[in-house]
Amino acid sequence: xxxxxLTAALLLTAVLLAGCGAKIKTAETDTVSVVCTIFPQYDxxxxxxxxxxxxxxxxxxxxxxxxxxxxxxxxxxxxxxxESDLLVYIGGDSEDWLLEMVEEDEALSERSVNxxxxxxxxxxxxxxxxxxxxxxxxxxxxxxxxxxxEHVWLSFENVHILCEELAECLxxxxxxxxxxxxxxxxxxxxxxxxxxxxxxxxxxxxxxxxLLFGDRFPFRYLTEEFGLDYYAAFAGxxxxxxxxxxxxxFLIEKMDELDxxxxxxxxxxxxxxxxxxxxxxxxxxxxxxTLNSMQAVSWDEVEAGATWLGLMEENLQVxxxxxxxx
Length: 326
Prior knowledge:
By secondary structure, the chain is α/β, with parallel strands linked by helices. 45% of the residues lie in helices and 11% in strands. A four-stranded parallel sheet has the order 2-1-3-4, sandwiched between helices. The model is unreliable at 1-19 and 22-28 (pLDDT under 50).
């Protein structure tokens, strides 16, 4: 993990020197408008300026629980983006429509933060694992073409980098609020570190070091950070095909071989594949648990108090059960 922290620090330094091109405003002028395409970005941007006198209006585009991979922007969404002072987006294949929009608008590009671009060489590829089904229903082979894994917000190390960059962008917009924004960032990073330590402790005492997903797999950053192995039905999240018979049999046999206590699914799953796997294992008594990827958090969840830290705390409890850490 030391090499990751060193690389991340060097990368962050270069990015912060470049700046994000935000338009400077003061608390006495117009509202500062920030548009975020998914929940994790939205949560960080609303936390960092807390307590300032600035009027920061943060818009969450995908606020109806729609998965980012099937999100379709409305005309109103496009208008809100055009009028924003800062745009924060993922920058992967799920946002092709937005990448094209940013490319065609130089002014928008200058006031945008592309998370994948920011992470640079720290971006991982979706990984081909034994037994997975590809998008046309076949088991992966040597022709598998790995795409960038967009789910960079599922790594504590990554979140440090992303929050530090977003803080710099907010400071450019609101220079008079710099002391409070930096204080908020420091407090938040301490909370991130504390939760990361809880994850490390849970992994350190775990009976198992492998997770099995009867579902898609958006958690490569998390498993990579904590040295966990995994098996899943599909790589990443873009799985339009049904799991092949070979994949189902493979996952059933893995459950029996490893004697794992839980089968994992992701948020929004109907759990049918996981139930099929469980029903056909020798014990047929595994728990089916949801690990939240935060790619489809609804506005109702936001209003109910959902936060990135809170959802990661819930994920920790799921992992403790799945890894036998309790």
